[in-house]
Amino acid sequence: MYRKEIEEYIDSHKDQMIEDICTLCRINSEKMPYTEGKPFGEGPFEVLQTALTMMENYGFSVRNYDNYVGTADLNDKEAQLDILAHLDVVPAGEGWTVTEPFEPVIKDGKLYGRGTADDKGPAVAALYAMRAVKELGLPVKKNVRLILGTDEECGSSDIDYKQEKEAPMTFSPDAEFPVINVEKGRLPGHFAASFEKSDAMPKLVKIDAGLKSNVVPGKAKAVVAGVDDTVLNETAAAVTKETEVTFTLEGCEEGILITAEGEGAHASTPEEGKNALTALLMLITKLPLASCPQMDAVKGLVKLFPHGDTRGNAVGIAMSDEVSGELTLAFDMLQVDAEHLDGVFDCRAPICANEENALKVAKARMAEEGIELLAEHMRAPHYVDGDSPFVRTLLKAYEEYTGLKGSCQYTGGGTYVHSLKNGVAFGCSMPGTDNRMHGA
Fold first, then answer.
1. Cβ–Cβ contacts within 10 Å for residue 359, how many?
2. How far lies 196's CA from each of 199, 226, 294, 297, 344, in Å?
3. Which of 33, 110, 202, 204 sits at a 20 to 30 Å CA gap from 162?
4. Would residue 88 show up in a list of annotated catalytic residues for this protein?
5. Does 244 qualify as catalytic in the annotation?
6. Per the residue annotation, which of 20, 30, 82, 88 is the catalytic one?
7. Exposed/middle/buried for 157, CB within 10 Å: 0-12, 13-18, 19+?
């Protein structure tokens, strides 16, 4: 009924909307150490204050929940719809070419910068939808609240800081259209091992890889000592041919520093990346290093998480179902020294997975290699009835505006709605769009 007026409003405010997105994206809002009054550090604090000021300047009633979360209300009527978005970002990482991570630019009709897609751009899009309704004076009977959090990428502890009741309906513009009504469960993948120190040569000195548990590492580093340069170069070339991950070698105080460079990806879609860590482990185990307990453990990791195995086949937990698809597994973080290793894999589990057929199986298989999986419980999947009036309304709107057929989807990604009774993900990207949300 009001489509023409809304479209004209958005078109006339497009440049302002893009500038508001850029304003937020210029702030590095990666999670930082706690300081008093700033639960997630300086960056998330600054971006929240900026967003609250922005929303207040547009005439919305705003509230700051102790610098964890900020909200803007469309009106003072009865609660009906919450829109949940987040202002924190994953670490910038490396490999940026079009611009620097926190210097957003427009090129070829695309907006580049960390957070443009995940989730500052969608947050501002939601704000402008509310502005359009408010400033056009469109009649609404109930309230819409925009909720902006600051710790979604590191566990959603901000939303756990609950002071309000869940609205009857919630969507998060933090995925893709049409509607995602199923989010996979999680098998927490923190593991560790200890072993007796060995000084036998040639040796692995250390490994340092990974930025975050939900990011496939695009870069990984190791130091080896006592390895012949020719052997190292030849082995690296062979592994590059097999994996498409490249290696650079340079001398350092402890030996030779090996830097593996692949391609990062979101851990929910590990097949879209080139995992630098698993390729680096492949290289290390192909080198003529002295036999020792440390190398036995590293070889065990290669057996459990071989390069290219993004479905958990080797660790014995590959499975799928029609509603939520295949299990995914990404080996994302690892630290190794002379006596210890500590690592994390990210596992998104379909509805058919449970502690008996996934967690206990993985624990037992890893124990065979002398590695302890530290998880005791899994996080259950999230499911909302795809035939509910709320979901049907969202799909109808999608179909009317795009001309495309709407349907319910599942995701391995987790959003703010995972623990909400009637929460789904709705947008903001169109199907098939590669917005590289966790990559460069």
1. 21
2. 10, 20, 7, 11, 22
3. 33
4. yes
5. no
6. 88
7. middle
